[in-house]
Structures are given as structure tokens and as C-alpha cells.
């Protein structure tokens, strides 16, 4: 099963598990019923923004859709977190680093943005975010002002301020995004 089929089937299975219709998810996310249906049937792919909206509507972290196994391990150690095969298949990777911890107070994710990718439109949400660039040059827009972050640069922001990330380079960017639950 390729990643797109896996993502679509995970969205569909979780939606059905939560006993939600496509119409209800559409109303919660602002995404069209036809887009959601195409996504569930692997006829289209999701942007980071649409995936974030879907995950919020279904009550999971966006990384839920990328995990290869759904075990609830209590391990705090996560090894070999980057699957390089995903870089060629997808526009981005969103890897949950909670190690299966139930109800974490904050959510650490490794995000890899491929060249030319971004998170979709500027958006805001509850909570706070901390970004730490590991590799590459990340452009972040906060309250419609852009800043360039190089490796080992970081930013802490109020997530209710409109913000976005961009990869204007020709190489993947790896960065940590640690966000609060609320």
C-alpha cells in the first residue's frame, strides 16, 4: 500500500470510527465533501493545512496519519525517525515524536518540507509553537512578516497569530515543531 492510499484509508477509517459523515467533517474543516471523498479514495493528496484541519476535526495529531503502526508504546525513545523513502513519495513528512505517550502536554513533531512546499494558507489556532531548524533554510511568516531561519535558529510564537512556513530552496528542510495542546 503506498502512502497516499494509506493516508486516505486512515482518514476514512478514523472518520467512520468517530461516526462522522463526510458532510460533518466538511463543515468542521471548511474542506469540500468532494475533496474529502477524493482524499479518502486516494485520488488526491492533502496539504499540511488540510491535514491539520482534518486532524483537528477528527481529534488526532496530524502525525497519526503518517505512523506505520498504531501501537501505544510508552517508550520515550524514538529511533530512526526519518524514513528517506517518504521524501520522494510525499511533499512533506510530519513525524510525531511523543513516543506513544497518552495525552501529552505538548506535541513534538519533526517536519520535513520538500523544495517549494509550504503549509497552505496562513492560519492561526490555539496554543503556542516552538520551531527549531535542524537542516536547511526555513522561511517563516508571522503576522504577515517573513523571517529566515538557518540551522540552529529557533522561534517561539503565539499560534493565534497568523503564521506559515515555506521552503523556497531546492533542498528539503528539517525542523522540530513543538506545540502546546491548547
From TrEMBL:
- UniProt xrefs under CDD domains: cupin_XRE_C, HTH_XRE
Q: Which UniProt keywords apply?
A: DNA-binding
Cellular-component GO terms for this entry: cytosol
Any one GO MF term held by the record is: DNA-binding transcription factor activity
Q: Which residues form the HTH cro/C1-type domain?
A: 11-65
* InterPro entries the record matches: Cro/C1-type_HTH, Cupin_2, Lambda_DNA-bd_dom_sf, RmlC-like_jellyroll, RmlC_Cupin_sf, TransReg_Diox_bact_type
Look up the domain of life of the source: Bacteria
| Matching SMART domains | HTH_XRE
Q: Which PANTHER family match?
A: HTH-TYPE TRANSCRIPTIONAL REGULATOR, TRANSCRIPTIONAL REGULATOR
- The protein's name is Helix-turn-helix transcriptional regulator
The source organism is Virgibacillus salarius
Amino acid at each position: 500500500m503506498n502512502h497516499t492510499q494509506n493516508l486516505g484509508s486512515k482518514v476514512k477509517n478514523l472518520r467512520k470510527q468517530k461516526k462522522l459523515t463526510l458532510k460533518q467533517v466538511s463543515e468542521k474543516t471548511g474542506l469540500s465533501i468532494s475533496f474529502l471523498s477524493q482524499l479518502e479514495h486516494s485520488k488526491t493528496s492533502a496539504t499540511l493545512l488540510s491535514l491539520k484541519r482534518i486532524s483537528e476535526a477528527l481529534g488526532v495529531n496530524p502525525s497519526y496519519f503518517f505512523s506505520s503502526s498504531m501501537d501505544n508504546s510508552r517508550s520515550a525513545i524514538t529511533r530512526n525517525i526519518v524514513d528517506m523513502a517518504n521524501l520522494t513519495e510525499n511533499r512533506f513528512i510530519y513525524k510525531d515524536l511523543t513516543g506513544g505517550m497518552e495525552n501529552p502536554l505538548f506535541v513534538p513533531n519533526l517536519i520535513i518540507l520538500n523544495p517549494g512546499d509550504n503549509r497552505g494558507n496562513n492560519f492561526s489556532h490555539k496554543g503556542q509553537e516552538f520551531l527549531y531548524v535542524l537542516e536547511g533554510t526555513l522561511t517563516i511568516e508571522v503576522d504577515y512578516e517573513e523571517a529566515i531561519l538557518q540551522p540552529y535558529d529557533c522561534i517561539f510564537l503565539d499560534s493565534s497569530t497568523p503564521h506559515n512556513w515555506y521552503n523556497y530552496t531546492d533542498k528539503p528542510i528539517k525542523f522540530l515543531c513543538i506545540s502546546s495542546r491548547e
